[in-house]
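User: Please predict the structure of the protein below. I'd like the answer in structure-token form so I can feed it into my own downstream comparison script.

Assistant: Understood. Taking the following sequence of 101 residues as input:
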Amino acid sequence: MYDARTRMVSFRVSEDEYERLKDMSLQQCARSVSEFARFILCKQPAAAGASGEGNSPRMDKLEGALRQLRLDMNQLRQIVETTLGRVVAPPETASIQENNQ
């Protein structure tokens, strides 16, 4: 079941930090920078480790492999689109990201 999000957390970042967050969120196929930041802050092993929960080394290795696969797929998409003469546009997340600013 969906948990309603009723609380908001906000913080300022520099232009460079925002661009890095945006790039990372696209690489991880997040719908928005906000979704990516929420995932990193609330669901990553580092956050879980603080509460005594942690991933096994096998799970960490699998997550790393999945991250690398996402990066590779994104690079492949850019190469294919460039080769076909298409302008490489970010996924449909751009409008969602702008709404979250």
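That's the full token string. Residues 34 and 100 are 7 Å apart (CA to CA).
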